[in-house]
Amino acid sequence: xxxxxxxxxxxxxxxxxxxxxxxxxxxxxxxxxxxxxxxxxxxxxxxxxxxxxxxxxxxxxxxxxxxxxxxxxxxxxxxxxxxxxxxxxxxxxxxxxxxxxxxxxxxxxxxxxxxxxxxxxxxxxxxxxxxxxxxxxxxxxxxxxxxxxxxxxxxxxxxxxxxxxxxxxxxxxxxxxxxxxxxxxxxxxxxxxxxxxxxxxxxxxxxxxxxxxxxxxxxxxxxxxxxxxxxxxxxxxxxxxxxxxxxxxxxxxxxxxxxxxxxxxxxxxxxxxxxxxxxxxxxxxxxxxxxxxxxxxxxxxxxxxxxxxxxxxxxxxxxxxxxxxxxxxxxxxxxxxxx
Length: 339
Ligand code: PHE
Fold this sequence. Notes:
alpha+beta, seven-stranded mixed sheet, three-stranded antiparallel sheet, 11 helices, binds phenylalanine
C-alpha cells in the first residue's frame, strides 16, 4: 500500500497539462469517483489496524498534493490561454477613485478647528474608563441614575471599569495632570446602553470643552459659544441659554441656536419653536475642581459638551443616526465636496 502511495505521489509531482481539457482529464484520472486516489481510499478498509494511522496520513497527504497540483495546472493553463489577459499592464490607473472623509470626521475637525483658533488645545482620553474619571470625580452622587445599568456599559466582573458615557471624563484626566490655565477641547466616542433606533445609538461622539483660569466667568462662556455657533452655522445665528442641571457644573445651562433652516421663523425641523438645542454647559462646580486637585478659591472655569452627530444632523439633515455607522458608500459619497 505504502509503495503504491509513493508511486502515485511521484506521478502527481511530475504531472503536466497543456490545456484545460488535459487538466480536467487528470482530475478525473486521480480524484473522481473512479479515480486512482479514490480507489486507494476504498482499499483503506483492508489495511491492518496497526498500519492504519500511517497509511491514512499518507493517503491524505497524497490527496491534498493532487488537488493542489491539478488546481495549479488549471489556473496556469487558464492564464496561458488568455496570454495573461487577466492582468492588463497597459491599462491606465486613472481616474483613481478617492475615498471620502466620514461626515462625523468632517464636522469633528471643523469644531476642533474653530476652538483651536480661540486658543484651545486638543486633549484625548481612554474610551474604557474607570468609575472615578467618568462619575465620582465629576461629582455624581453614588446613587445617580446615570451610573445605572440602563445607561452605562460595565465590563463584566470588573464593575469599576466601564465604557465612558460622556467625554467629561477627559476633563478629570486633564485636571489631574495640569494646573491652570487649562484650555482644552476633547473630542471622542462615548457609549450608552440604549436600544438602537433612528434617534438613538449605543455609541456616538462628543466634543468637550474646558477652560480654567483666574476670573473665568459665565460671560466668557457665553461669548465663546456665540462665536462657535456663528462660525459653525453662519454669522446670523443667534443663541439662547436655558437653565439646566449637570452634576459637574453650577450653574448649568443648555444652549439653543436659532433654527438655521427657517431662520428662526419656525418649521417642522425646529418643531415650530425657531430654536434647536445643541449643547450642555456651565461653570465647573468647585467640588469638581477640588476633587481633581485644583484650588477652587483661586480658580474658576467653564465647561461645555456637545454631540457631534447632533451638529452633523443640523448641518446636513441626516435623519437616521444609524446611517453614520452603516458604511453605505452611497451615503458617504454625498460628502465628497465637504472634504
Ligand atoms: N457631559 C454632558 C452630557 O454628556 C454634557 C456637558 C459637558 C454638560 C460639559 C456640561 C458641561 O450630556
